[in-house]
Write a structure and sequence with these properties.
Layout lengths: L3 E9 L5 E6 L10 E2 L2 E3 L6 H13 L2 E14 L4 E13 L9 E6 L13 H8 L2
Parallel strand pairs: 1-6
Antiparallel strand pairs: 1-4, 2-3, 2-7, 5-6
The structure holds 8-OXO-2'-deoxyguanosine-5'-triphosphate.
8-OXO-2'-deoxyguanosine-5'-triphosphate binds next to strand 1, strand 4 and strand 6.
Cofactor: Mg(2+)
Family: Belongs to the Nudix hydrolase family.
Pfam families: NUDIX_4
Length: about 130
């Protein structure tokens, strides 16, 4: 059976034009790859609601979700990921790496130097060209 998951990721930009990048920990699936923080959408949940929930769980802060950046279907060897990334701004709190091994603010010109989860590349390319 083809396994597929619907996933949301947050593109969070700060006032210096840097983007919040998160390194998946060695305990997560796809370990040691950079991603946009977020996670799986639950059955019946709106993508925007899922993103707010996941950011509280992973970063301990609340965000306001904005426009869609990219919608990507990526087939990994064992799973198909449907990833939607959204712009988001922090409303309350400071992001903390509650589940990731590292958080890093990266200017857009340096985003492509990170070792990204492959499904994230179209989002990185859109930001680079924006
Ligand atoms: N969160 C997130 N996941 C991504 C991105 N790119 C990408 O390929 N993925 C993949 C990794 C995982 O296979 C899946 C998301 O799973 P996850 O482990 O982050 O989600 P979750 O927190 O809801 O998971 P769980 O621990 O509840 O099972 O999507 C991304 O930018 N953000």
């Amino acid at each position: 059976m083809i396994r597929s998951v619907n996933v949301v990721g947050a593109v969070i930009e700060n006032h210096n034009g840097q983007f919040l990048c998160a390194l998946r920990s060695s305990k997560m699936s796809m370990p040691n790859l950079w991603e946009f923080p977020g996670g799986k959408i639950k059955e019946g949940e709106k993508p925007e609601t899922a993103l707010v929930r996941e950011i509280v769980e992973e970063l301990g802060c609340t965000v306001k979700v904005g426009e869609l950046v990219a919608s990507v279907e990526h087939q990994y060897p064992e799973i198909k990921v449907n990833l939607k990334t959204f712009k988001a701004i922090i409303e309350n709190g400071q992001p903390k790496a509650l589940e990731h091994s590292e958080l890093r603010w990266v200017p857009k010109g340096e985003l492509e130097k990170l070792n990204w989860a492959p499904a994230d590349i179209p989002t990185v390319n859109k930001l680079k060209g924006s």
